[in-house]
Amino acid sequence: MTKIRAAITGIGAAIPEYILTNDELSRMVDTTDEWIMQRIGIKERRILKGEGKGASDLGADAVKQLFHKTGLKPEEVQLLICATLTPDHPLPATANIISDKAGIKNAWSFDVSAACSGFIYALEIAAKFVESGEYKKVVVVTAEKMSAITNYSDRTTCPLFGDAATAVLLEPTIEKVGVIDHILRSDGAGRQYLHIKAGGSVKPASHESVDNMEHFVYQEGQTVFKHAVSRMSDVAVEIMERNNLKSDDISWLVPHQANMRIIEATGRRMNLPSEKVMVNIQKYGNTTASTIPLCLCEWEKQLKKGDNLVLVAFGGGFTWGAIFLKWAYNS
Q1: Which of 44, 108, 223, 289 is deepest in the core (most CB within 10 A)?
Q2: Active-site option among 22, 96, 259, 286
Q3: Domain with CATH 3.40.47.10 in the chain
Q4: HSE (CB half, 13 Å, CA atoms) of 82?
């Protein structure tokens, strides 16, 4: 029986216009461009400005760009999955709002919350729907307005995050391209090191929680760094070994863009030269679920059909994983 695989056949992105530089941050908190570049590798990040603007606005713009680039029509979409850490509202799902804003009427949609691993989690979920044979047009969106949950008086976290959205189209193929293999993991014991304390059912919003600034991202940087280095590196090597991939077989490593030192450590473990590692952290910062597909969008014209890509991420939860993907088209 011929195996159906899910292939990425198009990609779009939406990036806010406003650029928040390290120099501007240094006037807000006690930090410097030199310190941020040495510790993290981020030069600037994009911030969504405008009253009433949320993650869905970026997500809908990314979907519309995907429509423009691929010729896909809104009525053809059967399913839309949105990976987001920063939903517009607790209810309804941001995926529902994006579908409405993008004119998608014939699909069902839902959100996935896996922090920085959101794209690879959502991609694998979407791939299973396509591989079932029932779904022909599935859109995976990442939509993040991290500026909404960033404390700009905290020098340890405010340099990290930026806003961005992406959208990819998944379609079935019987060629040997698309999503080939995946390893996805989680460990809830890591929640104490990276979390948002208030705003959920355990600690609903209150005057006290707002006054104590408990609705912003909190992390213990060194602990998260150590876990990210080991788990991203380990899972990347594991997926190589499972698929008999040598370093020479890999066209590109597409790592989550959280910290330049984590990216470099993962590349070294895989024995890859730096020119095979996609890096744009210096321009966009950590856009959580959007970092990996934002790299794919930026490198799209360099990608060739049949290229072997390893996508790898680590995020709050803890969540982490890797996907072995064969690129499905030439731009």
Answers
A1: 289
A2: 286
A3: 5-176, 180-326
A4: 30
DSSP state of 276: G
CA gap 74, 111 in Å, rounded: 19
Residue pair 99/158 in contact by the 8 Å Cβ criterion:
no
Rg of the chain, C-alpha, whole Å: 19
CATH class of the structural domain 180-326: alpha beta
The Cα–Cα gap between 24 and 223 comes to 28
Q: Catalytic: 286?
A: yes
pLDDT, tens only, 166-193: 999 999 999 999 999 999 999 999 998 9
Active site residue 195: no
The CATH architecture of the domain made up of 5-176 is 3-Layer(aba) Sandwich (3.40)
Distance CA(34)–CA(23), nearest Å, equals 10
Q: pLDDT-derived band of residue 1, with 50, 70 and 90 as boundaries? A: low
Preceding omega of 16 cis (within 30 degrees of 0): no
What's the rounded Cα separation, in Å, for the pair 15 and 145?
A: 11
Query: Would the pTM of this model clear 0.90, i.e. be above it?
Result: yes
Q: Out of 116, 158, 295, 297, which one is annotated catalytic?
A: 116
- The three-class DSSP label of residue 151 is coil
- Known catalytic membership, residue 227: no
Q: Rounded to an integer, what distance in angstroms lies between the CA atom of residue 32 and that of residue 36? A: 6
- Among 158, 182, 256, 259, the one annotated catalytic: 256
* Cα–Cα distance measured from residue 46 to residue 322, given in angstroms and rounded to the nearest whole number: 26
Structure tokens of 306?
Answer: 């049949």
Task: Tell me which residue of 131, 128, 140, 14 sits closest to 77, measured CA to CA.
Answer: 140
Encode pLDDT of 294-323 as tens digits: 999 999 999 999 999 999 999 998 999 999
Rounded distance between C-alpha atoms, residue 329 and residue 177, angstroms: 9
